[in-house]
Design brief:
By secondary structure, the protein is an alpha/beta fold. The two termini are 41 Å apart. The strands form seven sheets. Strands 6, 9, 10 and 11 form a four-stranded antiparallel sheet that branches. A three-stranded parallel sheet has the order 4-3-5. It folds into three domains: 154 residues, 3-Layer(aba) Sandwich (D-Maltodextrin-Binding Protein, domain 2); 120 residues, Periplasmic binding protein-like II (D-Maltodextrin-Binding Protein, domain 2); 126 residues, Peptidase C15, pyroglutamyl peptidase I-like (Aminopeptidase). The longest helix is centred in the last third of the chain and has 17 residues. The radius of gyration is 25 Å and the shape is globular. Helix content is 29%, strand content 17%. Helix 1 packs across helix 2. It contains twelve helices and 17 strands.
Amino acid sequence: MKLKKFSAAALAALTVTMMSAAPVLAADDIEVNEDISVSGDYDWKRFANDHITLNVYNNGLYISDGSDESINVLSAFEELTGIKVNYTTYDSNESLYAKLKSGGVSYDVIFPSDYMVGKMAKEGMLSELNMDNIPNFAGIGETYLDRSFDPGNKYSVPYMWGTTGLIYNTTMVEEPPTKWADMWDVAYTNNVLMFNNSRDAYAIAAKTIGLSMNPQSVDEITAITDALKAQKNIVQAYVMDEVFDKMEGGEAAMAPYYAGDAITMIDENPDLAFVHPEEGVNFFIDSMCIPANAITPERVAINLADASIPDNAGDQPVDEPIRKDGAPAYFTSLPVKAMVQKMRAAGIPAALSYTAGSFVCNSLMYTLLYLIDRQYPAMRGGFIHVPYAMEQAVSKPLGTPSMELHQIARGLALAVEAVVENERDLTVNR
């Protein structure tokens, strides 16, 4: 399977973001290996003795691993900088979002697409970038900057753009497809692949029936959903990275995918061709971002103790109620939306959480709210999760969420201020 090509120097640029501004050296190029060289304007070894590991979470097949006579980008980067890379991948923006939203993991660099950058920034899931530490940002074309999903590029550095289109096998189609609607042709039943990606699949269906990919009404959403349902019996499989093996192996007649990947597939199988359908295509920008480890006020506690591990006393309840006479759940009486908003306004990463887990933290929150309900009705109470202090995270497994201690303290102080200032919570979207 072919991999997308990616520069080791580009990955290094985000490393600089995580550290401090770079000292300037001579302008001579430095040869990393016979395939790549980098500018000598930066001291690439300045962190080599600091025992740093970057936790990188990227879309699958975005960085070459050295197969098919391509460059092993991660090895080249580690050789160039002395920085180790813990590299894992996901198959869609939605998977990325769900993984980070669930908590319990943390990464130094992530690679969301445009719409997901906007969503994550709005929810306080991304850290603001210090552009003083990213001098190569000046080399990015204006076309790709200051887009609506991230005005002023406060949270993202564009590194890839592309379009969608149709890749097809010339030996398996009577006439070359020219429209997205060709994917609904019953003549190709069980020979059509479709995006296992809700955004791109939705956009294709919308364009097929002459609607915008940005819905204007519930009726439009219903019509687009119905179009996707109508296609279901024709589709062989819903795929993402699996499209490479299937199309290169001649297992399907046509599939929607990204233009850059189409070039790779055609290199492997000359029977393949690519077209931009006449209804129009989706233009996208993928970016590098630094996720924020957020302070999360909890909104609800449930009457359930279900521990995956024992506590320090060896207690490990399974599907037990916390209070037999308690309500199924209690909602916090704190103005949690106001707390999140006030922290975010001060630049502190914060997000609203709807689960405190199912053991210790949830039990503490539930017990507090139970007591308030039964004995102290005039009192307000709740629970806030905070990441580990960075000093603590050093001894924890890679990817453990952390935040500077002064930032945690400032965030909690602002949360308390919001409680004092707001008798009732804000009626705003989180």
